[in-house]
Fold this sequence. Notes:
The chain is of the alpha+beta class. Helix content is 29%, strand content 19%. The chain contains nine helices and 16 strands.
Amino acid sequence: MINTKIRDDKLQTLVSRSAVPIIDLAHCGKSLVNRVGQQLHKAFTEKGIAFLVNHGISEEKIKNVWDQFDNFLDLPAEVQDRYRRKDGGNSGYVSPRVERFDKKTTELRHAFNICQLDDRNIPKEPLPDFADDITTLANDLKAMSTYILKAMEAALEIPAAYFVDKHSQMLTGDDVNMSTLRMLYYPAIVDDEPGQSEGAIRCGAHVDYGTFTLLAQDSEGGLEVQLPGSEKWERVGHLPGAILINGGELLSIWTRKRYHALPHRVVIPEQDHVRTRGRHSIAFFCHPNNSTMIAPNDLSEDAEQTDDKVYSAYELIQQKFNDTYGGRSK
């Protein structure tokens, strides 16, 4: 145990090295959208990642959602099965060992995807407060995403509402927009259960699919990234109260890779006193409307470059889902 504590004390993170940009959203009205846009532009082009602070979403709202997901996981299996994600859709519960980003490594996590704020997709009957807590947080994250889209419009010097209009159907259903609020719980790893974590990971290495991701996580750790130009995995660390933002692959394609889609993963912590605790996080994946055509020329100053293939957002994201779920449609 003494050695474990020593390793923990010496564990360097990007936070401890002040290697992640911090963007302050305090009083982020229209007058500050240009400043936020420039800071996001610098973060996405240089690091692919940033922390958003003073964003106005309380820790209580986030913790309420973590608690509600814990309550869901305490329900009988037959009740959970009513809300299980079905092939052909993205909404619903996903149990451990189903998703495999590299198609082979076992991934140990529970997830619940919310793509539409309605009674059909949210377990309201067994958990009366679930819908209200989820809806409140989802609307806050959607509003934050809209502000970020406006800031990126300013930074990229593209017409006002270009991004906002193309993301206008967030959380109205994955048949029109694949944006998703995802609750995540990574179970504790108990070493006296043989084979529980052998050859496994909490979340395999991948880049996110869409425009960007907002991530709220607890202090348990395990998130690692590869910064641009490096193949080294580095632990991010925890900044209390901050929401992490990282660019997605679709945004990288849209900007001809000026904005980085950052590879990341969640490993099982090596410290015994951390790995034996569960880990919570909430991710909001901001995606364009499915019909949006991803045309890099629209964001390029060089109008003569027309050799980029144009895809719909749905085509690009669907292929990624198929890879994650072993060829099955998501």
